[in-house]
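new request in #modeling-help
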Amino acid sequence: MEIVRMIDSQPPAASPGGEDAKAQGKLFFEALAGTLACLSVRGFRRAAAVAMLGLLAAQSAHAALDIEIIGSGATQIPIAVVPFAQENTLSQSITGVVTADLTRSGLFRSVETAGVTPQPYQPSDVRYPDWRSRGADALVIGSVAPTADGRLTVQFRLMDTVKQTQLAGLSYTVTPGQLRLTAHRIADIIYEKLTGDAGVFSTRIAYIVKQGRNNYELQVADADGYGPQTMLRSREPIISPAWAPDGMRLAYVSFEQKKPVIYVQSLQTGKRMAVAAFKGNNSAPAWSPDGSKLAVVLTRDGNSQIYSINADGSGLKRISHSPLIDTEPNWSPDGQWILFTSDRGGSPQIYRMTADGGPAARLTFDGSYNASPHYSPDGKSFTFIQRLNGQFHVAVQDIASSQVQVLTDTRLDESPSFAPNGKIILYATEIGGRGVLAAVSSDGRVKQRLTVQGGDVREPAWGPLLKN
Amino acid sequence: MKKVALSLMVLSLLAGCASQGVTDKKAAVEDHNVGANANGVKQSDVSANPLHDPNNILSKRSVYYDFDKYDVKAEYKPMVEAHAKYLTSHGDAKATLQGNTDERGSREYNLALGQRRADGVRKMMNAMGVANKQVEAVSFGEEKPKSDCHDESCWKENRRTDIVYQGE
């Protein structure tokens, strides 16, 4: 359990103890209560999940993802992150993780902090001209202090060096094991304050690692690839992991019964159940936005068709009706629509139908191969795979205008999906004969590669923002 | 070099298929039974089993496809026909039709495409009189490639349906 407190900003002219301060204090308290309640629940759920995963997981350290960044944003915010007071006493760097998160996004440029003496830890320590002369628009300062019960209090403040004001300030009381997650949360807040979009550094990703001829692992790691945990290990293929909207369950397809069967597994307990194990193939699970149902693809009635089924395996209902292939359903964020891939027009193309199985309308018309649609979080566009000149690229199509933007130049891209803030698309590709994960910013400017030592990584799925 | 590759291919057609459905151990045991029961020949007399006789068309087991296609090309029809005849004349023989695709594009679409490939062979056999209880169409999509490289030389090997008899 962690405790989070907002740190009051310190306007230069505040008179301690005055009426203004009291009024501010009350507001502050209400905000604090709200924040405390939500963040604690989130922290607890996450901690529990990681603990249980730890039990399930074996030594997966060898499979840690390495990240390489290519390109940068159109504009980069210059930010100076000063090592926190007493941070050097920790085994886990906080500001190192914060800086790595921000620069990896391609939207920030790290400004050198060495040489400014004394290093600031409190707003009253900050000499703004020092930072303006180094070109920093934003400054992060903070401190770490042990508590009596063996935990740590991490305090940070984000300062605007131009306006010379505090933009954010939070204090976290956490166990040493939660320091890395705390650093990601600090980066999330900085990202949100400075870009206006939600940060996704504290979210997680799921993916499949294949090692050797037939060793498959379903793994879950932090969004920066750190701390992979194995959810399932198999000698038969595993594909199509999909996060439940609550971030606590994964649906996936496993061939362990010598054919594709859909399972739903709890990240907390590791327990799982086969939710679709009908005659023939069971594949392509997609969660409804409320987490109550899955759209799945079955061949029980002949060709691959889309059905909906409750998350406990009850209430099967067929929702697509074509004599050819219908597959890869993906629910719109508002639950009204389902995108899917069908070859009913003679080649695989992307269609949209109402979630109850109304008539389908074709959405893609460029080229002879468009597949694997995934909605953006705002529901206004979708990412998919488009074949161009024999190569398979990640593209995004705006639904209202039908305008398509191709985002990648790799040739064997697969399985694209949006980060929960809609700013990054995560996908699988092949480089140098190896399967790797890659991410591209939704404007195509920033690219990252995530590789695993001695294995193929594939089938990525970005977990949800765990909302308050 | 080519010769080696070819003979490896034949070997993998014979042996590799077994590893896709059942364990090798079980396959060896069942192979013995099929040899003894169905054909009344001893296992050592391999050449007498038409399914394994390299000079018999029944030893050919794979239908190959163009990218994103599932129609059985004319050149494979005599082979499918021979297996259909074998199945109709051996009422207790059972075969699995395993559809596969190359690695390109969507894994889920490829799973569905592999199923259509296998179903296409099954339907052709049905039309030739084979009962559905003797043939089962399954798909491995792109998940079990026979050849691992990332160009057409491997892709064309992976776009196929294999006919695998029970016990192989």
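bot summary: DSSP finds five helices and four strands in chain B.
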